[in-house]
Amino acid sequence: MKKMTKFALTGLAAGIAFAAFTSTAQAQEEWTMTSTWPENLDLIKIDQHWVELVNKLAGEELQINFRAGGTLMPGTEVFDATETGSIEAAGDWPGYWAGLNPAFSPLATTTSLFNGVDYLNWIQQWGGRELYEEIYGQFNMVYLPYGITNNESGFMGRTPIESIADLEGKRLRLSGRDQGRVLEELGGSQVTLAGGEVYQAIERGVIDAGEFSTPGVDFNAGFAEVADYWATPGWHQSASVFGVMINKDAWDALSEETQEILRIAADATMAWSLAWSERQSTEATQKFIDAGVTINQFSEEDLARIQEVTNEVILRGACEAPDHAKVYQSMVAYLEHYATWRDVSAPYNMSRVMDNLPSLEEIEACL
């Protein structure tokens, strides 16, 4: 009798454990996530890398069903869809939303200011992460930056650009609010096109030259087939950040442990993305050379002039919007603080040595 009772109790315990396991399995969250990037643009690999990590590490509680950009909705609609909860998450480049808040522009990229390591330092240790959370938080979203690429290729086209004097009167495809303002001060005009349209615009002469991303991304997008000239460095986007927008309600439904897994996966993807894009850019640069594309580099004098114009544009924008000022204040404060160590460790430092920054005092006066 005792043996039967013991067996019954053991069976009951096993049944309870099985039921709990079944309940947990049934309670698994399933998210739909898309991106601003279609399948044929390599930047989607950053989104895919993060999704794969999350699905491996948080599979018992969360599985993300990822769809390439354009398969669920146009890339321009993913912000609203995530904000309202139509989808749980979307990969993005913050600069696309600068019309909603100008602070999104420096959260995405800077003209002639941060490089990739600067963004990494700033996000991880100098308060950048909190600013992404704050700005996206205004739109019912949590934001995890998970991708960094270093400076972009530059301008590619069928018209040679050898100096900033050659920008006068040129129609150039260029992303970013602040970037467009700098270009206009230098005599060029900004043309806004989706990434997938740049190839045809160069081919048909709709633009004099264009840019999209790093050399690796640009080569795989076919730019070597239509461009004869390449003006470098890509001062207009000295580095870029990518990440995932997550609907706040969907985020809050996760356990703290799963939320932490998503953050860890974002940090791991961020480190991977920088090394991946630099390796890809190195190999692609050689491919552009082998394809016969002529590379022209801006002179030090030209780059110094670009920096002067950039500083003016940053100060002007800072006084137009407090959030814009807040982000740039944090960035310039980081550069000034980091210089204590950075400059004395040159040339083995991990960031740019700069002697012409936007005025921190003037930015702070706009807060």
From TrEMBL:
Protein residues bound to Na(+): F212
Residues that hold substrate according to the record: E152, R173, E211, Q237
Region forming the signal peptide: 1-27
MF terms in GO: metal ion binding
Keyword annotations: Metal-binding, Signal
GO CC, one annotated term: tripartite ATP-independent periplasmic transporter complex
Domain of life: Bacteria
GO biological process, one term: transmembrane transport
A family per Pfam: DctP
UniProt-listed PANTHER family: EXTRACYTOPLASMIC SOLUTE RECEPTOR PROTEIN (PTHR33376:SF5), PTHR33376
Identification of the protein by name: ABC transporter substrate-binding protein
Originating species: Vreelandella sulfidaeris
